[in-house]
């Protein structure tokens, strides 16, 4: 088993915000960081020691990254399988190519969960108009059609409430191979955030309670308002999933809590996750430090929550008239601004987040909504002077 000590180099496939925050924490701990990303000045490349410019299907560039690295990880699961398998022969890949094989394809992921006996939504595979009709009979309507590959933040998803809407939904996702899932009228969404180390030990960050808008995460609130018993069940389920995959690193398992109070797995992310951003400021060990520890073969850190927290995502919509005014965030001493250094904003694009800390999660939540409203008003009023 390979251990990588501070001074070694962590290679990251992907250069977005997850890679950026991982790089910041890794460098604090004395690691070098190399990033593979096609963008000239992406969020992670801006703060890395080394940037290999190249796309995820550029084997030569990926091998250059592997050559510089002692361990390889990723900030997106949308990396071609062949490339992962090749890199794995060169350097330790955490998560492994096998984990990615299961996760990259929503149908494989659902089948894996089914084999594990994990509770999940009803689903069926869709490959053409005929199988779509059969799938709708099986899972019922309303339902959500999701492309098997490359979907995120609601991309590659379309809802259908009536049989006549199925063909339209199929068209909206580009008639790509898909799964149809029954639509869950959930009570809330939560995520289990855990790290599994090279010896198979698991540690949990506190469960986050998540609110999405238009399929994109808007806020995470910690502690989540769920009974202790349900929290324990969710964490046990998360650990079972991570162990069955023999995963190493951070993992997020997104779950629906139904109105009847039971759990259904929505999806698995074998990496750091947006709903764990609160930990970067609110926990003794952030999810990014924990991921570094896990993939480098170090002992895991203490993930306990230092203070109740709410994380508010900042989407590109706020940049509609140029960069928004940051005064509404900076005026509140309890609010902490995180920006990812993205040069271009577009609606729905994750540009940063605000972490709000306090003693009382209700007050923190109210302050988060006040800041959100002020930012929105400020976005139309113009920039800081
Ligand atoms: P996903 O990309 O699959 O995580 O979907 C993003 C968000 O869309 C989820 O967090 C939910 O808010 C919503 N969503 C996805 N699938 C379903 C479903 N089967 N039933 C209800 N809501 C869903």
Strand content: 25-35%
How many runs of DSSP E, i.e. beta strands? 16
CATH class of the largest domain: Alpha Beta
The CATH homologous superfamily of the largest domain is named: ATP-grasp fold, B domain
CATH architecture classification of the largest domain: 2-Layer Sandwich
| Number of domain modules | 3
Largest sheet: 8 strands, antiparallel
Bound molecules: adenosine monophosphate
- CATH fold group of the largest domain: D-amino Acid Aminotransferase, Chain A, domain 1
Structure, explained:
The protein is of the alpha+beta class and 385 residues long. The protein has three domains: 85 residues, Rossmann fold (3-Layer(aba) Sandwich), CATH 3.40.50.20; 61 residues, Dna Ligase, domain 1 (2-Layer Sandwich); 199 residues, ATP-grasp fold, B domain (D-amino Acid Aminotransferase, Chain A, domain 1, 2-Layer Sandwich). The strands form three sheets. An eight-stranded antiparallel beta sheet has the order 13-12-9-10-11-14-16-15. It has a four-stranded parallel beta sheet with strand order 3-2-1-4, sandwiched between helices. Strands 5-8-6-7 form a four-stranded antiparallel beta sheet, with helices on both faces. The protein is globular. The mean pLDDT is 95. The structure holds adenosine monophosphate.
